[in-house]
């Protein structure tokens, strides 16, 4: 069974391309990044609907997570 991914690291695209302006389109939307996120989620929803018409495979978004480690009471890693 295939796993379909509609977007690759949407949060990275929002931050690097639309907030920091490093990648294309090079925008600096510090005050209003929400239209970018809205359109990413809209695109995901439309892609899910289109894919579900042709497959029963799982569909998702590839998120980018940073690693997290537990910290003990002494402030060191457990």
Oligomer: single chain
Number of helices: 2
Mean pLDDT: 90
Give a quick account of the main beta sheet: strands, pairing sense, barrel closure: 2 strands, parallel
**Class by helix and strand content?**
alpha+beta
Percent helix range: 25-40%
Shape: flat
Low-confidence stretches: none
Separation, N- and C-terminal Cα atoms:
38 Å
Order of helices and strands: EHHE
What share of residues are in beta strands? Answer: 5-15%
Strand order of the largest sheet: 1-2
Count of extended strands = 2
Rg result? 17 Å
Q: What attributes characterize this protein structure?
A:
single chain, 2 strands, flat, 2 helices, 78 residues, two-stranded parallel sheet, alpha+beta
Describe this structure in words.
- This protein is of the alpha+beta class and 78 residues long.
- The protein has helices spanning 10-19, 34-52, and strands at 4-8, 59-62.
- Strands 1-2 form a two-stranded parallel sheet.
- It is flat, with a radius of gyration of 17 Å.
- 1% of the residues are buried.
How are the SSEs ordered, and which strands pair?
Blueprint: E1 4-8, H1 10-19, H2 34-52, E2 59-62
Parallel strand pairs: 1-2
